[in-house]
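Render this sequence as a predicted structure.
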Amino acid sequence: MTYSGYQYAFYHFYAWGLKQWGSRSYPQYWAAFVVAIFAILNIYSVLILLEVIFKLKLFSLYVIGDKPLRGTFVLAVFFLHYFLFVRDRRYEKIAREFSGAPKSVGSRRATYLGMYTSVTVLGFIGCAWLYIAKM
């Protein structure tokens, strides 16, 4: 997914949250959170596949003693998405860019986004199943 597609994913969830709950519920944070969750699922899927197929551990779940690195990694991804989409009201620029698109383009993008979210969730479930089956 290109950065433009990533921005559209953010816009889609932002517009949906804005329509459902209004601007008082801060839909920009919710949209950044949802897109960050999908990014985390994709990253973990790749790491699981590397471990299952190639026996390569690039990211151990516990690195320093018993202190998990997972929480730090997840927080870093959330902060990255905050800086990409929310800080300095960047979500307004993204909303202006995508809200003026013709219906046909928006429909095609929504179809691609639906495929992306489905593949992401099902891919993560499949990778987790592989990991558990290999243990």
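Summary. DSSP finds five helices and two strands in the chain. Strands lie at 62-64, 67-68.
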